[in-house]
Hints:
Largest interface: A-B, 44 and 47 residues
Radius of gyration of chain B: 24 Å
Oligomer: heterodimer
Helix content of chain B: over 70%
Order of helices and strands of chain B: HHHHHHHHHHHHHH
Order of helices and strands of chain A: HHHHHHHHHH
Number of helices of chain B: 14
Amino acid sequence: MGLTGKISSGVLVLILLLSLAAPLIVPFDPDAIDLDSLRQPPTSKHLLGTDNKGRDILARILHGGRISISISLFAALISMTIGMAVGLASGYGGGKTDTVLMSLVDLILSFPAFLLAIGISIVLGEGIYTVMIALSVVGWASFARLIRGHVLSLKESAFIEAARSLGCNNSRIVLVHILPQCVPLALVMAGLKAGGYILTEAGLSFLGLGAQPPTATWGSMISASRVFINSAPWMVFSPGIMIAVTAVCFNLLGDALKEKYDIRIDREF
Amino acid sequence: MKKLLLTIPLLLGITFITFSLTKALPGDPVYSIVGERSSPEIIEKIRKEIGADKSIVRQYGGYIKLLMQGELGRSYFTSRKVSDDICVKFPNTMRLAVASMLIAAPLGIFLGFIAAKKRGSPADRIITLLSVSGISVPVFWSGLLLMLFFSLRLRLLPPSGTGGVRYLLLPAITLSLPAIATLVRVTRVTVLDIMDMPFIRTARAKGIRESGISAIHIFKNALIPVITIIGLELGSYLNGAVLTETIFGWNGIGRYAMEGIIKRDYPVIMGCLLVGTLVFIFINIIVDVIYHYADPRVRVHGTDR
């Protein structure tokens, strides 16, 4: 992996570790209201300042990071698993299975992604798990299409024919010979997707459809501080920077993996 | 043509999903009409009247019929027809969409072209990094920062409202950022691909000037994938518009949807969802048609892209 890949994965690990170790780093409770220190600009005590309820922004960012990042990672994992299963079944099975599954994929992909995610979140009721489900329901389809294409090309290759002539049954061919070949492709996609999920999660939180107050997420922090953009801009700056940096790192990581495994993803999403 | 026919089951599928979403919404519509404490007889009567006692299939049929008549229900709060509201707000949204694409298309294509022609140079690196940032920065954040800087600090442009170019500029720029980024990525990859092709070497061997090769051979061939992306971006425009229109108080479908979400005004939300999806599909079809005419190869080899 190139330098950018290393740097971006390093930064991601750093952000994740900092969020996990949040109570050790910041002495403040992220949800504790402190009426004596409302909307303070960054000081040595509150490194990123405080918000309109006197809560420490750094503490909220680090605790919010746990939620934002874990939602994105889990959603990427879930959609990758479903997408791979469907892609393998569809590509290797062919015939009617393929037609049915791919129509479903086309159906999901013909919705504007964010709008569908909003629709699902509203039906399921807001919350962390809802966001995860909404992201996965919207996201698995592009994995499935990608994996299916790869399986189709693998199916014709010589080593599969060799395996078949040696007497391998279908499940062995799929699990032992085809599945491992699809993993790098799926990982690249997962990296790129996770970057998009960070943004979608932030957008849903911004709309009030994600984690509910007082729990902090990066999106909801921006949403809550919108009104104070002029008087207390630091409230808006830092959560946005965290979203952007995390998403950039996921995207760069995906790109780096793409280069490493020499993979082409024509229509990315 | 085959593609056009394929959109019919697609549309049915989509309406079925929005129908299921409507059905799965919390709360019983009968109760919202008669109130929680009515007698069972009245509830039963209303249920018959609005057809809630019929089978799901019949209900779905009725839903499709209403949709065909352009009926999307009424807002729970204003009692206005959702379809009327959407008709008022849709032109505003289109204006914003077109304006942001007018900014994004030339800039994105130009930067992507430069990056590809100067592959590996510092310029390429900077443009590539900027484009990765472009797809990674949330629009509601970049929008707020633009507003803070240009409206609240420099006082050059109004921070919010619907109106002429002065109002249009900031939301259009905000929305164009991710579109520029996507266009840069696609243009760059496409141009790089084309530059490796034998016919470019042939052109060069024939002694055609580099600028001529860029303008005619590369640009013309790169245009087709780029048109696709412009179409897709325009179609998925409502994705970003929900957030951007809200921030800038732009009186379009996006803000309408956002207000619906906040007030849990389900007919409004579902109406916007449906309209957004239909526009998305419609634009995809147009792109396919353009594709068909712009690229002779598609006509010969079928609609495979």
